[in-house]
Specification:
The structure holds 2 protein chains of 2 kinds.
Chain A: E1 2-5, E2 10-13, H1 14-31, H2 36-45, H3 50-74, H4 80-106, H5 110-141, E3 162-165, E4 170-173, H6 175-191, H7 196-206, H8 211-236, H9 242-263, H10 268-291, E5 298-302
Antiparallel strand pairs in A: 1-2, 3-4
Helix pairs in contact in A: 1-9, 2-3, 3-6, 3-8, 3-9, 4-6, 4-8, 5-10, 6-7, 6-8, 7-8
Chain B: H1 2-15, E1 22-28, E2 33-35, E3 42-52, E4 62-69, E5 72-83, E6 86-99, E7 102-106, H2 110-113, H3 116-122, H4 126-129, H5 142-155, E8 159-163, E9 167-169, E10 173-180, E11 187-197, E12 200-213, H6 215-226, H7 228-254
Parallel strand pairs in B: 2-12, 7-8
Antiparallel strand pairs in B: 1-3, 3-10, 4-7, 4-11, 5-6, 9-10, 11-12
Helix pairs in contact in B: 6-7
The chains are: A mainly alpha, B alpha+beta.
Amino acid sequence: MQIYLPIAEVAVNAFLLLGLGGLVGLLSGLFGVGGGFLMTPLLFFVGIPPAVAVATGANQIVASSFSAVLAHFRRKTVDLRMGGVLLAGGLVGAGAGVQVFAALKARGQVDLLVTLFYVVFLGTVGGLMFWESLRSMRRARNPGGTVRTRKRHNWIHALPLKMKFRTSGMYVSVIPPVLIGAGVGVLSAIMGVGGGFIMVPAMIYLLGMPTKVVIGTSLFQIIFVTAFATLMHAITTQSVDVVLAVLLILGGVIGAQIGSRMGTNLKAEQLRILLASLVLLVCGKLALDLLLEPSELYSVGVAE
Amino acid sequence: MMRAALALLVLWLGATQTLASERVVLGLSQDEVAITATFDGSSLLIFGAVSRDAPIPVDGRLEVVITVTGPTGALDVRRKERQFGIWVNADSVRLSQAPSFYAVASTAPLKDILSAVEDLRHRITLGQVVSTVGASQTVDDVENFTAALRRIRERAGLYQIAEGGVALDQQTLFRTSIELPSNLVEGTYQTRIFLLRNRTVVDMLTTGIPVRKVGMERWLYTTATTQPVLYGLMSLVIAIAAGWGASALFRLLQR
């Protein structure tokens, strides 16, 4: 069944979109990741204009994070103060990101910007994940290897403007969380992702936050930053397609339910290798589009 | 239904045999194209007849050319170039006037039935419609860019040439069918019918077919463009409600 998307102005098969949402939902249920970084490139591949894919991706993440963050609130695993600091940075970053996005859209370079960001980030994250899971699989096979302990004190603790974060039990400078938040804000505006895949490791390894509050706190930041990015995209580039978003969300909810049940039957290391391979595959496809000579060198855009 | 309409036309022609020379009388399968949520392209049937006040002239065959032109606006055509090892948009040409849709159908190859002067006057062939006149001269090879525009849009079904696509019966009844793709731009689609004899236009008729989004599609589109803040907030509320509602439903089902 073809459905005409009013903002993207293309007709796409509704079941294809539900399936895409379902696939990404399945992966997020399996691996516990948001999946925005797979959703946006998949939307490019089915022919949604990149500007619409990014803006609608941000909208879809708001929905998928909402019920998750509620669950974390019930378990009291959200550090509101840290979330607020991350959010302050995030709003600034997202605001700047949307401006850059709109400026490049007018010059016809937005596709390049988005693809480059994806190639760099998917390549880095996928590569690191692949390497990490290979190492831990090898370690699991011959135990007794060296186990590195996480450093408790590093240069971050020497920075000024310290603040007390009671829920996390930390006393650190607000500069690193603001910067992390801003960086993630830029990513969510340009890539249409939540940015959890960058923020969670940064919170654990850079800030040294306790793992139990990391997910809830990052979700808290993501929901407001992606909501802000959606609103900014709706105002400046008018590329949020709500019909597309609803189809992806419905597919996503169903997929996530199936995924979380399947996940319990698979080993964690195998899962991670699987996810890493998938991320690298999408990255490779996008990189090839940049590196190989395209079959059509010309493109047509409506003059702004 | 079309047959009945044609029969009526013929009857009517018999009654109005007082007009001068040959004139076009037009019928359309639809006087409006509505883009709904399930819009997947549409087929536009254009038919009509030639009315005459004298016997069919014998000097040269009668030929019919039908064009449909979508809303026209400025376009940027960009060309990729390898820079630092990757392919990026480099040169671009702005065409000040290019239609979003253009179809031309005729009874015979246009070069045989249409003189260059008439083409220039009425802008019938794609070469005239997508011209480099008014293009910004920042590159040396503007014609490559216009050729690319035609190639890309012909592949997408947005520019169509159907030479021989108009059927003409007994030099009086003509009809053609134009396929409208699903990615149509809203606006008025100008439909022109030309009657030609000896490569010269003897009569022409112009009419407009409105193409517009309707229902929910129309409402969403206008809200997004005229009240973006409201639309953005609404998108967020709808998204959260859909996500929350669906997962709540799932929890209910599991009990």
